[in-house]
Write a structure and sequence with these properties.
Order of helices and strands: EHHEHEHEHEHEEEHHEHEEHHHHHEE
Radius of gyration: 20 Å
Number of helices: 14
Shape: globular
Helix content: 25-40%
CATH topology of one domain: TIM Barrel
Strand order of the largest sheet: 6-5-4-3-2-1-10-11
Distance between the termini: 36 Å
Number of strands: 13
Length: 361
């Protein structure tokens, strides 16, 4: 795989907390009731000072604050954590992904001053004032713009990230112009890959009532995962050859509970499907049982807990070095994310959800 000394990139989920209720986020059901098993947790400054250490940060080239379930700005110690990391390595690059709808403008000004010179904060802004809230439920467009302006006014480098739906596709060019006028360094258009069986997605309130629907953009690049695709999914993952991205980039992921994983995709599985330790969720998906078998070979999931074993001990263990290499080409989550099929990489936007009828031929 790679050894501890070779790691160059670190992906951190420093908080599993989030004030938003985005309908397609796995932390809630269609934007409504939050999963009752979701455990809100933060990584604190002490974790980084004593469980990770300065020498590790010195060898890194890039840190990404993102994760699977939370927003990094909800961590009360984000700025002290960044100050510590930069004190260890002033040349490190930091990318931070956020909905941007929390904290005061002073806090955002302070964040800009704490970040190293090489940084980008990615603000999720899916539309303009009248459409943004349809997906980013619980956030305020005007508040995000206010925070972004304070951040950029104090030297912060920002990117506007825009997920295109049918309800906001007519505003893309307007948003681009606004981003340029405000001082965003770049504008990124994205499409979601979370439409299953239908080009529409029900949005629910806390009582389970449908409030509105999300729809694919008119000229979507990502094809909806239809019943035929799902039916043939297992065929696809069996024949896909995995080209593991983290193996190439020498990166590692640590979640908000302090567990180390090769990547966020693998790290998400135990939290959204059944595992004997019942960490967070209690859902079952047969196609992911193979990952649990690998964890059993590790000696249990606690062997990946950085609160109990050093990151060096985990990564340089025989289990990490051998089991991931032996199994990633057989893990469905790996095939889905980094699989190569018919000269196509499955996680690329244009072919991630291609029509799989050819598998029936």
């Amino acid at each position: 795989m790679y050894n501890f000394k070779e790691i160059k990139k670190l992906h951190l989920e420093i908080s599993s907390n989030c004030q938003a209720s985005c309908p397609m986020c796995v932390r809630n059901h269609h934007g409504g009731i939050e999963n009752p098993r979701l455990k809100v947790s933060d990584l604190d400054l002490n974790f980084f000072e004593h469980n990770i250490g300065s020498e590790f940060f010195k060898q890194l080239e890039n840190i990404m604050f993102c994760g699977n379930f939370g927003d990094p700005i909800l961590n009360q110690e984000l700025i002290p954590i960044i100050d510590y990391i930069v004190s260890c390595n002033k040349n490190i690059r930091i990318d931070l992904h956020t909905n941007g709808s929390a904290r005061s403008t002073k806090w955002w000004a302070d964040l800009a001053k704490s970040l190293p010179k090489d940084h980008v904060v990615h603000f999720a802004l899916d539309g303009l004032e009248d459409t943004h809230h349809l997906c980013r439920i619980g956030t305020s467009f005007s508040k995000i713009i206010e925070n972004a302006k304070a951040f950029m006014a104090n030297g912060g480098r920002a990117r506007w990230v825009y997920i295109i739906f049918k309800h906001n596709e007519h505003q893309v060019e307007l948003a681009k112009e606004m981003a340029k006028e405000l001082g965003f360094e770049s504008f990124q258009e994205k499409e979601t890959s979370r439409f299953m069986n239908s080009p529409t997605f029900d949005v629910l309130d806390k009582l389970g009532k449908v409030t509105h629907k999300l729809e694919n953009p008119t000229n979507q690049r990502l094809v909806v995962i239809d019943p035929n695709t799902i039916k043939n999914y297992k065929k696809l993952v069996k024949i896909a050859k995995v080209e593991c991205q983290v193996r190439e980039t020498k990166s590692i992921y640590i979640d908000a509970l302090g567990y180390a994983w090769p990547c966020c995709w693998v790290g998400a599985v135990p939290y959204i499907h059944t595992y004997p330790s019942q960490i967070i969720h209690d859902f079952q998906l047969d196609s992911h049982k193979s990952l649990f078998s690998v964890l059993d070979e590790f000696g249990g999931i606690e062997q990946l807990n950085v609160n109990k074993r050093s990151l060096f001990e985990i990564v340089d263990s025989v289990e990490w070095q051998n089991l991931w290499v032996q199994n990633y080409n057989n893990l469905n989550v790996c095939a889905r994310t980094c699989g190569k099929f018919s000269e196509k990489i499955l996680n690329q936007p244009d072919d991630q959800f291609m029509d799989l009828r050819e598998l029936n031929e």
